[in-house]
Design a protein that fits this description.
homodimer, alpha/beta, 8-stranded parallel barrel, globular
């Protein structure tokens, strides 16, 4: 499964400081360590604190690409910040993210076509995050239809059921799992599914346990990829073991090591 | 969820020796530790080595009940050994197990009615363990129909999708998970689902990781109970966290401790 490394995000204090101080080492170290740990894509988010988000995004993308050749997920709420990042990407990138809101969806589909990238679509829209599986799946279908109509291949479309913190809405996890199951039924071949995993454990004392348990449940329901922390060893072991149990690669006694070597 | 402690089984060397030597301490210690760790039922299996299985079962049941009042799952392939155990049970017991084979099913349903116990039904029959979800579910339906017709309440019927070792049949886990999903759709109210978890990791170097990952996936698919090792702390934490994420009890920061207190 595709793990998109979440750590280069200005919401983390070390990254925020590194952006402010143009400290390449911190960013490049995070990039290398995440790639070494099994992330096959790295999320890049300048965070809310950057004063000039466009130049911060450019600096991050250039800095990361000097250290690793891992593809990047360009993560921003602002299309102009996303485009600034995409212009510099050397490998096929992922746009993170659109929603079902028409103006945004149109703008980001255009960017995905222009830059030949993947597109992540959150199953929410201008009315917010729906509380029902049905409405989330309807928004997913809207994004999938519009994107494929514009010529984006299904395998480049990643639908996100939206993960909310268990601490603040316990019914949300069941809705999220059922949304994943139903998103996978929208088309054949099915769209990919993805989620921003760590949000589930916001405010929880044992975040890693909550994250990996959510991940394993979501994989059982059809999750294909996750924006998550590849430096969490137990998370990666749970992910690899789930893939093994679902027969995604051949069993050998040293499967944990073998899986990483094959990445 | 109901965890049935698996440790009092003559297949384990310490238990086999304890049966041979009539060593009550070892058995009672295992009973107490499993109950303390969160097992709400204890499986009792004399194992294949006992020379007189009926007297070994009687001795085990009496010995355990001198130490704890946890209900027992009387586990044997032989109806006469099961009946010898049931006769002595002070609390409502579980018969472990019948299959879909008619003669066995009839005999064990009679026992379940006579002793007012729960009934565990493996979704296999005289032809062996089916390789398809459909046939396992058909056998599950056969067991469910026969048991309810005989007056056993649905909530006392535990259907088992059959867990085989991932090392020897990787496609089996996907079949098992889908079987759980479909067994839950057989009736309303649904029958309970259960599995002998540890079998999945036979021959694997990191058994605990494989066991707990399988358990979390199965819970996501509707598993209600498992015969498992409650002394595996990480397994119990994964189980409790899964239940939390599925909104089975209210979140609090100390939910791991709170869950066990509420047992």
């Amino acid at each position: 499964m595709l793990i998109v490394g979440e750590r280069i995000n200005g919401m983390f204090q070390d990254v925020r400081k590194a952006i402010q101080n143009k400290d390449k080492n911190t960013i490049q170290d995070l990039a290398k360590r995440q790639a070494d740990a099994g992330a096959r894509m790295l999320d890049v988010n300048v965070g809310p604190a950057a004063s000039d988000q466009i130049s911060a995004m450019k600096w991050l993308v250039e800095t990361i690409q000097q250290a690793v050749d891992t593809p990047l997920s360009i993560d921003s709420a602002k299309p102009e910040v996303i485009e600034a990042g995409l212009k510099l990407c050397k490998k096929k990138a992922l746009i993170n993210s659109t929603t079902g809101e028409k103006a945004k969806l149109d703008a980001l589909i255009t960017l995905a076509c222009d830059y030949k990238t993947g597109l992540l679509g959150l199953t929410m829209d201008e009315k917010g995050i729906p509380n029902s599986v049905q409405t989330r799946v309807e928004i997913g279908l809207k994004i999938l239809s519009a994107a494929t109509e514009a010529g984006i291949p299904t395998e480049d479309i990643y639908l996100d059921p939206v993960v909310l913190p268990v601490k603040f809405g316990q019914d949300q996890i069941g809705i999220m799992l059922q949304t994943i199951r139903e998103l996978k039924l929208l088309s054949d071949p099915a769209p990919k599914t993805i989620c921003g995993l760590s949000n589930v454990s916001q405010g929880c004392p044992d975040r890693s346990l909550v994250n990996r348990t959510t991940l394993v449940m979501a994989i059982a329901c059809g999750l294909d990829s996750a924006i998550a922390d590849p430096l969490d060893k137990q998370l990666m072991e749970a992910m690899i073991t789930s893939e093994l149990l679902l027969n995604k690669f051949i069993y050998c006694d040293s499967y944990l090591t073998a899986y990483k070597k094959a990445l």
